[in-house]
Amino acid sequence: MLSFNQDLFLAINAFAGHSRVQDLLGIVLAEGLPYLFIAVEVWLYFFAKRKEEALLAFYASLLGLGLNQLIGLAYFHPRPFMDHLGALLIPHGPENSFPSDHTTFMASIALTLLFCPSTRRLGDWMLLFAVIGGLARVYIGVHYPLDILGSLVVSLASAGIVVALAPRLKPLNAFVYRIEDRIFHN
Q1: Which of 2, 14, 78, 111 has the most CB atoms around its CB within 10 Å?
Q2: Where are the domains of the chain?
Q3: pLDDT at position 185
Q4: How many C-beta atoms lie closer than 10 Å to residue 34's C-beta?
Q5: Cβ of 7: how many Cβ atoms within 10 Å?
Q6: What's the Cα-to-Cα distance from 185 to each of 44, 54, 173, 177, rounded to whole Å?
Q7: What is the pLDDT of residues 13-48, one digit of tens each?
């Protein structure tokens, strides 16, 4: 499995460092796509009148990132550059690679939106962007492909848990709405 992971990483990362435009696109996708997800969350909550869906996606992203931290306590996997593999396009600290926090953040939001009937179509698109962002993380040399796959599994679990618990989260949502009301309507 290690050899497969490294071979697949090298196949994706092999294109890095040959074209400034392509490398810039890879960096923008890898580093910038999470901001698109934040913008979508803000749009859903404040403008699209999909507050519950936005909150559920937010909760799922928090749960997913929390699960990543627990996984990181139990399992350490070096990043590709720590194994002296491939081209690294951005500076990055030598820390745990598995699973990818960026991808977990994006995919948790996307999958939650996909599971909610009112945002299913948007969720389809966001999941595509999450996968593209994850692959861009491989392209720029900071993650292995199985880090991205692991993130998708964590995200699926976190989104599934949050959507299943949605009725029980209504009091928490009501608390958030009260805070919003105090901030914006006083």
Answers
A1: 111
A2: 2-184
A3: 81
A4: 19
A5: 11
A6: 19, 20, 17, 11
A7: 999 999 999 999 999 999 999 999 999 999 999 999
